[in-house]
C-alpha cells in the first residue's frame, strides 16, 4: 500500500502527518492513506505539481480538518488487511510521541517526580564511592532508587495505556511487573556471565571472554526489548496479553523496535554513562556534584519516560490498537469512588481544624 | 464588500450540497467525486473535498468504506450517504431550489426596472437652519 511517491509528495505527506498530530493515530493514518491514493493517481496522470498546489499547505489543510472542534464520531480507519504491514522506525517514534501527547500530561509529571528521588540517590551513591569514610549504606539507597524507577515505569504505563487505573498504586499488577522485569533482567545478565565463563573455561583469552560477554549482553538486551510490551501490559493491568504473545508478536518487528530504541533511548543511556564517569572518575567531589547529580537524574528520568513511551507504542502496534487523540486536560467526571474517598478525607481533615480564638 | 470573499463563502456553503448530491444513490471515492464535480466552477477542489468528507463522515451524514479496486494498487475510500445524509440532502436540495428561485427572480426583476430617483434627504436637512 505504501508505495513511494515522488519526493515532493512524500515531503508534503510527511509535513501533513506532523500537522495532524491532534488526531488519533488510526484517523491520521486514514487521512494520509486517502491523500496518498489521491496523489498517486494524480502523479500517474502527470498532474502532481498542480494537485499539490490545489491541496495547499499541509498546515492549512490540517486546519481545514477542523481538529479542535471535533466532537462527533470517528472516521473509518484503514482495515488491517489493506494497511501497510511494516512500520518504519520513524513511524514507531511518531507513535511514541503521540503516546506522550495522549497521556494527559501524565508522563512528564512522572519524569518530574522521578527526578527528585534520582538526584538524591545519585548524589548518595557517588558520595559512597568517592568518600567511603562517610559511611553511606549503598543497599538501602539502591533499593530506594530501584523502587522509584519501577514505580515510575508502572505509573507511566498506566497513564499511557490504562488511564482508568490508579497510576501510583502498589498492587498485584505492579508487583507482577516488578518481579517479571527483575527476573528477565537477571536472566539476561546471567546468560552473559555464563557465556563469558564458558569462553574462559574453553581457554579463550581475556579479550575473547569480554567480547563473548558483550555479545551475549546485547542479545539478552534485544530479547528483553521483545518482552517489554508484555511487561507494559502487566504494569497497565491489560489482560490477555502474555509473554508468548509478546515474543511471537515482535517477530519481524524486532529491527524496528531496536532501531527506535537506539534512536530514542540509547543516546540518553550513553549520556548517563558519561555523566557517571565524570562524577566518579574525572571531576572532584564538591559543590558541583549535586548539580551534576540533578542533570544525571533528568537524563535518567528521560530514559524512563522515553522507554515507557516506546514500549507502550510497541504494545499498541502488536495489538493493532490506535494511539488515542491527545486529551491534555481530562474533561470526564472523576469516578464516584474517588470523589467519595476525597470527601471522606476532607471531612477528617476538617475535624482536626484548630478552632480560631474569637 | 470584497467579491472574492463573498464568492468563497458562497462556494463553501454550496460545496456540501454538491458533494451530498453527487453521492445520492451511489458510492464514490474522492477522485471520482472531484471528476464529477469538475464542472462545478471550482466549488469543490482538491483542498476542500477531503476535509469536507471527513467532517460529513464524523457527523454521520456519510459512511466510509475502504476497498481495493481491481485496477487500483492503493486502497480507496468509498463514500455513501447514510439515512441521515439522505434526509439532509433532500432537505438541502429543496431549500436550495427555493433560494435560487427567489434570488434569480430578484435579480431578473431588478434588471428590467429603471433606477428610482432618490430624494436627497440628508442634504436637505443640513440646509435647514
Characterise this structure:
The complex is a heterodimer of chains A (358) and B (129). With 358 residues, chain A is mostly helical. Chain A is 71% helix and 0% strand. Chain A is built from 14 helices and no strands. The mean pLDDT of chain A is 87. Chain B has 129 residues and is mainly alpha-helical. Chain B has a domain at 3-81: Orthogonal Bundle (Arc Repressor Mutant, subunit A). In chain B, 60% of the residues lie in helices and 11% in strands. Chain B has 5 helices and 3 strands, in the order αβααββαα. The relative contact order of chain B is 0.12. Mean pLDDT of chain B is 82; it is low at 123-129. The interface between A and B is medium-sized, with 31 and 27 residues.
Mean pLDDT value of chain B: 82
Mean pLDDT of chain A: 87
How large, in whole angstroms, is the Cα Rg of chain A? 25 Å
Structural class by SSE content of chain A = mainly alpha
> What is the SS-derived class of chain B?
mainly alpha
Question: Which word captures the global form of chain B?
Answer: elongated
- Unreliable spans of chain B are 123-129
Concise overview:
Chain A is an all-alpha fold and 358 residues long.
Summarize this structure as a short list of keywords or feature phrases.
heterodimer, A: 358 residues, mainly alpha, 14 helices, 71% helix, 0% strand, globular, B: 129 residues, Arc Repressor Mutant, subunit A, 3-stranded antiparallel β-sheet, 5 helices, 3 strands, 60% helix, elongated
Write the layout of secondary structure elements.
The complex is a heterodimer of chains A (358) and B (129).
Chain A: H1 7-19, H2 25-44, H3 48-55, H4 58-64, H5 89-102, H6 106-130, H7 138-161, H8 172-201, H9 206-235, H10 243-249, H11 254-264, H12 266-282, H13 287-318, H14 336-351
Chain B: H1 3-22, E1 28-29, H2 30-36, H3 46-58, E2 62-67, E3 76-81, H4 83-112, H5 121-127
Antiparallel strand pairs in B: 1-3, 2-3
Amino acid at each position: 500500500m505504501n508505495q513511494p511517491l515522488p519526493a515532493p509528495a512524500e515531503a508534503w505527506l510527511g509535513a501533513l502527518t506532523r500537522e495532524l498530530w491532534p488526531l488519533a493515530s488510526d484517523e491520521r493514518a486514514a487521512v494520509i492513506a486517502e491523500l496518498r491514493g489521491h496523489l498517486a493517481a494524480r502523479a500517474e496522470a502527470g498532474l502532481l505539481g498542480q494537485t499539490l498546489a490545489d491541496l495547499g499547505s499541509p498546515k492549512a489543510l490540517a486546519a481545514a480538518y477542523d481538529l479542535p472542534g471535533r466532537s462527533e464520531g470517528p472516521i473509518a480507519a484503514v482495515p488491517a488487511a489493506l494497511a501497510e504491514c511494516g512500520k518504519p522506525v520513524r513511524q514507531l517514534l511518531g507513535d511514541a510521541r503521540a503516546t506522550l501527547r495522549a497521556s494527559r500530561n501524565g508522563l512528564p509529571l512522572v519524569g518530574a517526580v522521578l527526578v527528585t528521588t534520582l538526584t538524591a540517590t545519585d548524589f548518595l551513591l557517588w558520595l559512597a564511592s568517592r568518600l567511603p569514610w562517610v559511611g553511606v549504606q549503598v543497599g538501602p539507597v539502591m533499593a530506594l532508587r530501584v523502587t522509584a524507577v519501577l514505580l515510575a515505569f508502572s505509573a507511566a504505563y498506566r497513564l499511557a495505556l490504562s488511564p482508568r487505573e490508579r497510576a501510583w498504586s502498589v498492587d498485584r499488577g505492579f508487583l507482577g511487573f516488578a518481579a517479571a522485569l527483575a527476573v528477565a533482567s537477571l536472566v539476561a545478565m546471567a546468560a552473559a556471565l555464563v557465556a563469558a565463563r564458558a569462553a574462559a573455561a574453553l581457554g579463550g583469552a581475556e579479550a575473547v571472554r569480554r567480547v563473548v560477554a558483550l555479545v551475549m549482553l546485547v542479545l539478552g538486551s534485544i530479547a528483553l526489548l521483545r518482552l517489554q510490551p508484555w511487561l507494559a501490559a502487566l504494569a497497565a493491568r491489560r489482560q490477555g496479553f502474555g509473554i508468548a504473545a509478546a515474543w511471537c508478536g515482535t517477530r519481524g518487528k524486532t529491527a524496528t523496535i531496536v532501531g527506535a530504541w537506539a534512536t530514542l533511548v540509547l543516546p540518553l543511556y550513553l549520556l548517563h554513562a558519561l555523566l557517571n564517569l565524570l562524577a566518579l572518575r574525572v571531576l572532584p567531589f564538591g559543590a558541583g556534584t549535586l548539580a551534576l547529580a540533578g542533570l544525571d537524574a533528568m537524563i535518567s528520568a528521560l530514559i524512563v519516560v522515553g522507554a515507557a513511551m516506546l514500549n507502550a507504542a510497541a504494545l499498541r502496534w502488536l495489538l493493532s490498537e490506535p494511539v488515542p487523540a491527545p486529551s491534555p486536560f481530562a474533561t470526564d467526571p472523576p469516578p464516584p469512588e474517588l470523589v467519595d474517598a476525597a470527601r471522606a478525607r476532607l471531612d477528617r481533615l476538617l475535624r482536626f481544624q484548630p478552632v480560631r480564638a474569637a | 464588500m470584497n467579491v472574492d470573499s463573498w464568492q468563497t463563502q458562497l462556494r463553501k456553503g454550496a460545496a456540501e450540497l454538491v458533494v451530498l448530491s453527487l453521492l445520492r444513490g451511489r458510492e464514490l471515492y474522492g477522485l471520482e467525486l472531484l471528476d464529477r464535480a469538475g464542472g462545478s466552477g471550482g466549488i469543490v477542489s482538491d483542498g476542500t473535498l477531503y476535509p469536507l468528507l471527513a467532517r460529513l463522515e464524523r457527523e454521520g451524514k456519510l459512511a466510509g468504506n475502504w476497498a481495493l479496486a481491481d485496477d487500483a494498487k492503493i486502497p480507496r475510500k468509498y463514500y455513501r450517504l447514510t439515512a441521515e445524509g439522505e434526509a439532509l440532502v433532500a432537505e438541502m436540495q429543496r431549500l436550495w431550489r427555493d433560494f435560487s428561485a427567489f434570488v434569480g427572480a430578484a435579480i431578473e426583476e431588478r434588471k428590467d426596472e429603471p433606477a428610482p430617483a432618490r430624494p436627497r434627504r440628508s442634504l436637505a436637512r443640513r440646509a435647514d437652519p
